[in-house]
Amino acid sequence: MQENLTVVIGGGAAGICAAINKGRRGEPVIICEKAGQLGRKILASGNGRCNLLNDNLSEKYYNRAARELVKSIFARYGKSEILDFFKGLGLNVYSQDGRIFPVTNQAASVLKVLELELKRLAIPVEYNFNCSAISIQKGRIVVSGGAGKQIECRKVILTGGGKSYPVLGSDGSTYEIAKHLGHTIVEPVPSAVPLIVKDSLCRYLQGQRISSGVKSIIDGKEGRTFKGELLFTKYGLSGTCILDVSNSISVALNRQKKANVFLSVDLVPFMDKPQLRDELARRKKSGYAPEDMLTGILPNKLTFAVKDIFEQNDIETAVDSLKARRFPVVATKGWNEAEFTSGGISVNEVNSETLESKLHKGVYFAGEVLDADGERGGYNLAWAWASGFVAGMTG
Ligand SMILES: Cc1cc2nc3c(=O)[nH]c(=O)nc-3n(C[C@H](O)[C@H](O)[C@H](O)COP(=O)(O)OP(=O)(O)OC[C@H]3O[C@@H](n4cnc5c(N)ncnc54)[C@H](O)[C@@H]3O)c2cc1C
After folding, report:
1. Which of 20, 43, 45 most suits a substitution to test ligand 1, by most atoms within 8 Å of the C-beta?
2. Which of the listed residues 168, 240, 381, 385 should we mutate to test ligand 1's pocket, taking the one with most ligand atoms within 8 A of CB?
3. From the CB of 15, is ligand 1 less than 6 Å away?
4. I want to staple 130 with a disulfide (CB 3.0 to 4.6 A). Which of 34, 176, 191, 234 is the partner?
5. Around Cβ 298, how many Cβ atoms within 10 Å?
6. Is pLDDT above 90 for 1?
7. Each residue of 90-100: pLDDT tens digit?
8. What does R_g of the chain's alpha carbons equal in angstroms?
9. Domains in the chain with CATH codes
10. With a threshold of 0.85, does the pTM exceed it?
11. What span, in angstroms and rounded, lies between the C-alpha atoms of 345 and 31?
12. In the predicted model, is pLDDT for residue 395 greater than 70?
């Protein structure tokens, strides 16, 4: 065994940062990556632009269970450290509505500066190493991959990611490794994911986009409102506000097995109720046909699709229906279309200062493999960079 060797399992955002920090401290480290390439999720992030951080970095944008841990990690490695790190690597960034991107608008630039740093530090990468187990006996840690490959080390940092977009490498296999070590796995569910909705309106309107405000209604309890683009699809609803609201819906459907899950959609978010009421009353008085009551307010096809609201109801009821149209949600589109994972290794079982396992000395976790997920807007990569750095910090 190489003296003091650390093995990093997984070469994504968290694993690369953990390895760089180890390397900069002059400690021997190797990355074991199951694919033939590092950072494939970084390349796919932000539609290829990589929203790598948010100006407003705070634990409050993460799941409740993880907030204490996230706060502790950001206190050690927060926004200014992440910005300094990338600046030091030569990456120039800019901020758009709080979301931070590389000035090149290319995720490939982000991965490239990280790879150059790995090269400068001469950090070896074992590609096509599909880690299947970590065994620990009397302080001796052995990492096993396919075809009988084994590496003995002093420390191991597990950064195998979650279950979303398995085509990019992370398929949940590292949860099993942590489970074998005795760790609790909070049931992973897809997050930031389109929703399957039982309403023929969606299929009829497929391809139409509107700006909207949406909130979840789970067992009658209303969630927070998310505003943004809504896209009607043949299976249901997608678009930025749907991805934003999907987290609580996915947890309710997939983990809590709730049946009463609805989306309340404000089809006219740019008008408050009195404004909409006045405009509709004016149109009705002027003799507008039901199919024209919303012409110029909503796309023509949607205006036609909801004309029955005006055929069957008074203005007051129509306003209520347009400001809070209910769609029953039956499922999410699943792992292949989810940007992140909610759930993972329980944060209660890791040291909140070092990310070391409370069950096994020398075993660390970082990134999406932990039960820590942030909102969209750069929070998940921020967590991956920061937790990776902290996991690679202890000597
Ligand atoms: C389409 C898409 C867009 C996104 N856009 C953004 C965005 O703009 N901003 C943002 O903040 N977040 C975004 N995210 C989320 C963000 O990319 C992830 O949260 C983050 O990359 C997780 O980093 P990670 O290192 O923890 O895991 P991953 O990036 O998943 O890396 C895990 C690595 O481990 C490897 N691995 C897995 N199992 C094993 C094993 N058994 N043995 C060896 N290696 C293994 C995998 O191949 C992979 O390389 C996006 C995600 C997706 C899918």
Report:
1. 45
2. 381
3. yes
4. 34
5. 18
6. no
7. 999 999 999 99
8. 24
9. 6-190+341-391 (3.50.50.60), 195-332 (no CATH)
10. yes
11. 21
12. no
